[in-house]
What we know:
This protein has 140 residues and is α/β, with parallel strands linked by helices. It contains 3 helices and 5 strands. It has a 5-stranded mixed sheet with strand order 3-2-1-4-5.
Amino acid sequence: MAFSSGTQNGAPMSEINVTPLVDVMLVLLIIFMITAPLMSHKVKVELPQANLDKRPDKVPPTPPITVTVQEDGHLYWNDAPVTRDQLESQLSVEAQKTPQPEVNVRGDATTKYRIVSDVVNIAQQQGIAKVGFIATKERP
Length: 140
């Protein structure tokens, strides 16, 4: 019988056969010896060192400007009353700033959309890039 250890009682062999283990380990050793030189870079590059202590200061974002439109057409610049001409001149001044502030348009619930649309068009004509709307959240 092929599994017996040569003793008379026919008991199975209790020794571990290490030959397959050694074969696998030698194959892995050869693979790592071949691939290790390929892992190194052929072109040497001197990379710059990161310097996190000397970052340029970021410009703080400018607060948004709120233009309020009432139902009768009265305009308010950050809660201060303005005329249409004053609104145009103030928006053109704000459009020249870097970074440019956002303009938020807030209108009454009964304000006609035509009036709000005129304010948005004025802001865009003056060069304001970001124009938004302020609304109250509906409660369920």
